[in-house]
Amino acid sequence: MDYDSDSDGSHISATPPRDPLPRRPPQPPPKPPTSYKSTASTKRSSHLDIIFKLKKPSSSKHDKIEPVPEPEPIQQPDLPSPVGNFPFQIRRPSDQPHPISIGRSLETLPAGFFSTRRASFSKICKPSLNFEPETSPEITAEPKINGSDGLGSTKTCNKKLPNLIRGDAPLPPVKLQKRSEEGNFVRLNFNGYKRKFTAKGKKMNSYSYKSKYFKRSKRRVKSEVDTGSLCDEEGLVSEIKLQSKAEKPSRCESVEAAISAVRSAVSEENLVRLLKAIYGYDLFRDGQLEAIKMILAGKSTMLVLPTGAGKSLCYQIPAVVLPGITLVVSPLVALMIDQLKQLPPMIQGGLLSSSQGPEEAAETLRMVQEGSIKVLFVSPERFLNADFLSIFSTPNSTPNFVSLVVVDEAHCVSEWSHNFRPSYMRLGASLLRAKLNVECILAMTATATTTTLQSIMSALEISSTNLIQKAQVRDNLWLSVSLSSNRMKDMLKLMKSSPFLEAQSIIVYCKFQSETDVISRYLCDNNISAKSYHSGMLARDRSRIQELFCANKIRVVIHYSLPESLEEYVQEIGRGGRDGRLSYCHLFFDDVTYYKLRSLMHSDGVDEFAVNKFLCQVFADDTSSHSKVCSLVKELASRKFDMKEEVMLTLLTHLELGETQYLHLLPQLNVTCTLNFHKTSPMLLADKDTAVAAILKKSEIKQGQYVFNIPTVANSIGVAPGDLSNHLQNLKAKGEITYELKDPAYCYKIVKVPSDFCSLTELLTRWLLDIENCKVWKLDAMYSSAVFAVDTCEKTHDCNVAQQTTYLQERISDYFRGDNNLDVLDKMGQNSPFLRADIKVFLQSNSNVKFTPRAIARIMHGIGSPAYPSSIWSRTHFWGRYIQIDFKAVMNAAKAELMNFVGKDAP
Ligand SMILES: Nc1ncnc2c1ncn2[C@@H]1O[C@H](COP(=O)(O)OP(=O)(O)OP(=O)(O)O)[C@@H](O)[C@H]1O
Q1: Each residue of 266-292: pLDDT tens digit?
Q2: Is the predicted pLDDT of residue 764 greater than 70, yes or no?
Q3: Which segments carry the region annotation Disordered (predicted)?
Q4: Residue 191 and residue 612: Cα distance in Å, rounded?
Q5: How far is CA 353 from CA 401, 422, 426, 888, in A?
Q6: 189-217 burial, b for 16+ CB within 10 Å, e for fewer?
Q7: What order do you get walking across the sheet with 705-709 strand by strand?
Q8: Strand 583-589 relative to strand 477-483: parallel, antiparallel, unpaired?
Q9: Within a 13 Å sphere around the CA of 206, how many CA atoms are in the beta-carbon half?
Q10: What is the DSSP letter of 237?
Q11: Among the ranges 530-534, 766-770, 829-833, which has the highest mean pLDDT value?
């Protein structure tokens, strides 16, 4: 391939020097996609968040971590309504179409409000701490939920715990809670600690870790107290104090008795009694009681509550009441671990994840089979595993039958959500019923538009009468927005002013990994202690920062970049104020970032041409025998079809779960095996071993090593790839061979070869295009909300944060309600006089490279793709040059120029 570079003539451009952003009036609002039929989409994989832990520059006495005495309940003054000016003045240049200026500031919080909560980040990061999940073989098992040994004695202190969040509550002022009332779930964990470790002498594996977590937590707290490295003096140290308090039995109730009462009558009174017994809470929050009652009545339920509103409790209570297992499906291992840790002590939990070793997984499964796990967290990918499913296809009399399936982050089921995951498509009600024999499904999310809700509920067969939906945003979050031409400076200014200055826990969301490092360095240079947190970091470092960041205590959320959708915005601000206390969320946005994101929304898109090539390859194998396993090496195929791996998986999943089943997807495997023989000669071994004989037949010999494809060899001897892998493992154990596996691949069996490739190609392409348009629309809706919030404020005399909060809350609620009248701006240019001429020059200077219109449009928009990576193509003069022109307009221009070009060159 001849790659473009500035030296090959591609610098000759028709374009004049780059200009600032085009001055265009707002375009009429585009309509969201209308043909929402089936379930699936592509997902952008590169969303990056950072967490900056911030500290005031001057080290005050509060920065020192010392053993802290048991906190006295401190009466927090009510927070005044922040109606003052922003600490900075941002005015949009007059030539821009949406004049913005918010010259207001947030009123200062009462002095000392945050002062007792200061922590030093450098201490948090002490290398002596190790918070990685680890195996603690000596840990004893906790009592079973309905055992007589522990439950009766499961006690909670009679403390009143906060119950602040009400979906229907009016706007702030929000009362601040007393310090002694926060972080309560951890206290409960500590209450449970002692009982759990003395209950039974059983060993537990590391992933069934209620007990393990407590042990770890206790060790952690101890070591942190020893080293003075607490994240939050108030938080953890007070937990230690509370532990000893809780050990003294006070007014407590037997959980077992409360469970029995609910089993005999699912009344509000009995459920509140159980709530109190397990969690110590006096009242259910909005939506909780309704959801729990519905589930206990055996009705599949759709639950939409804001982030941090207490959705977990809605499955935890049914889990203790229902006789069988509660299976919770979660999209991320980190989320599963987090939820497992947060289970109250009397609920025995476990998890199965791909990051576990086989022994750990086997141990968890053993516990599942004997019925000692009450809540099991699994990833949706687990549903590809036949062995896993077979465990649950048992009659309801066995201890491991499933009573309830919880689909957490249920928006991932829908391709019209901001975060669709193809593996979630597998969670259709029909499969859950057929394979798990389960009747009741609980789907939970914090962010779903009406369209998303419809697709979730139809996939999971949840009746429209069983929808429980509350406000999407908690009313303890104050929302503000500003347009900024220098975000770094403006953010610094914001952080150095009240109330941001006083907040010790601040999250700053960025869009790009590199941005997180640059900004954290900038803040550190300006005496604000900050750390970046992103997917490029070691998991160990990430989890350390995450644990210590103490999510419940976050008071400020700053968006340094525009989120891609209102769903993403709502999810991210939801990290703040999870303890119910007032938190501030400020969004900086700018047009340059908007254009960049707008381009990125097209990075998953594919064309008919690529879909057709993909289908031909998928069904290319000899299909005479449908029991054969086919494979598609992810990296190779991704480059070949210029398609992201996630998009290929989306297509494969659709081919399995769409209207017609064309294939059956199997778990992914490393399919290329490189093998060496050691003891016996290959020929001799082949005489006694049919697998070895097949390997010799199907291998290529490279530098004396046998290289073969696992499914090909397995097919040739009529065994499953997994069985062949086990056989190789045995030969290795005997010292006969050594081998290495590589090339992760999608594996599948063909069920039916499509009779009409063209119509199937067309159908799939149209579907993917709808998804692409939907993403673009979501970004435009987010951008427009920010612009309008600023405009609204500008038009209002003496604008304040409360007004922006109200505007954004209304806008968010209109968006999620699926209001068709939602005004959405489209700032994109539709043409440029130089576009065609530039494409022509580009094609001439890369005449020996094959392009599709989409590939050219991506380069002109500065987006890399598997076949045209940015590492190579960003060198071209045209890279990102037309970012302000609508992607489709660039594609159309590219198509026209390609036709000209090919026409001219055609013989
Ligand atoms: N009835 C209640 N009274 C007081 N606190 C509660 C109540 N229900 C839940 N909480 C607390 O609220 C906090 C948030 O709950 P939870 O983590 O379940 O929220 P969530 O809705 O699942 O959030 P997310 O969407 O981010 O996962 C927890 O600390 C939990 O203990």
Answers
A1: 999 999 999 999 999 999 999 999 999
A2: yes
A3: 1-98, 134-153
A4: 60
A5: 20, 17, 17, 41
A6: bbbbbebbbebbeeebbbbbbbbbbbbbb
A7: 629-633, 737-750, 663-677, 705-709, 700-702
A8: parallel
A9: 15
A10: I
A11: 766-770
Report residue 225: phi and psi, to 5°.
Answer: -65, -40
**3-state class percentages of the chain: helix first, strand second, coil last, to nearest 5:** 45, 10, 45
Mean of pLDDT over the chain: 73
List pLDDT tens digits, range 435-452.
888 889 999 999 999 999
Task: Give me the count of residues in the chain.
Answer: 907
Residue 708 near residue 699, CB atoms below 8 Å: yes
Residue 422 scores a pLDDT above 90: no
- Report how far ligand 1's centroid is from the alpha carbon of 552 (Å): 10
With the most atoms of ligand 1 within 8 angstroms of its CB, the residue from 163, 274, 313 to mutate is 313
The response to whether residue 328 sits with its C-beta less than 6 Å from ligand 1 reads no
Q: Which helix (H) or strand (E) holds 770?
A: helix 757-795
How far away, in angstroms, is 312 Cα from ligand 1 center? Answer: 6
Q: Do domains 284-469 and 474-622+756-814 have the same CATH topology?
A: yes
The residue with tokens 């200014």 is 493
pLDDT at residue 461, as a whole number: 93
8 A C-beta contact, residue 215 and residue 206: no
Please give the C-alpha separations between residue 479 and each of 106, 172, 559, in angstroms, as whole numbers: 11, 12, 11
Query: Scanning the structure block, which residue is given the tokens 């929000």?
Result: 174
Q: Which amino acid is at 50?
A: I
How do the domains of the chain map onto residue ranges? 284-469, 474-622+756-814, 625-752, 834-903
The per-residue pLDDT for 168 is 33
CATH of domain 284-469: 3.40.50.300
The verdict on the CB of residue 574 being under 6 Å from ligand 1 is yes
Binding site membership of 553 for ligand 1 (Cβ less than 6 Å): no
Query: Rounded to the nearest whole angstrom, what is the distance from the C-alpha of residue 340 to the centroid of ligand 1?
Result: 14
Classify strands 375-378 and 402-407 as parallel, antiparallel or unpaired.
unpaired
Which residue CA neighbors atom 3 of ligand 1 most closely?
163
pLDDT at 733: 94
CA of 579 from ligand 1 middle (Å) equals 8
CA 755 from chain centre, in angstroms, equals: 38
Which CATH architecture group holds 474-622+756-814?
3-Layer(aba) Sandwich (3.40)
Residue type, 854: R
Between the two ends of the chain, the Cα-to-Cα distance in Å is: 22
Q: For a pocket test of ligand 1, which of 190, 343, 578 has the largest count of ligand atoms closer than 8 A to its C-beta?
A: 578
Pinpoint the alpha helices (H) of 642-698. 645-657, 682-688, 690-698
Spatial contact of 288 and 300, defined as CB atoms under 8 Å apart: no
Can you read off the two tokens belonging to residue 516? 């997180």
Token pair in block for residue 494 = 């914001």
Q: 508 C-alpha to center of ligand 1: Å?
A: 22
**What amino acid is encoded at 284 in this protein?**
F
pLDDT score of 395 = 64
Compute, in angstroms, the gap from residue 589 CA to the centroid of ligand 1.
30
d(CA 205, CA 199) in angstroms, rounded, equals: 16
For ligand 1, atom 31: residue with the closest CA: 185
> In 763-786, which positions are buried (b, 16+ CB within 10 angstroms) versus exposed (e)?
bbbebbbbbbbbbbbbbbbbbbbb
Whether 309 lines ligand 1, by a CB cut-off of 6 Å, is: yes
pTM over 0.80: no
The CB of 446 under 6 Å from ligand 1? The reply is: yes
Task: Decide whether any atom of ligand 1 lies within 6 Å of the 311 Cβ.
Answer: yes
Burial readout 41-80 (b: 16 or more C-beta within 10 A, e: otherwise)? bbbbeebbbbbbbbbbeeeeebbebeebeebeeeebeebe
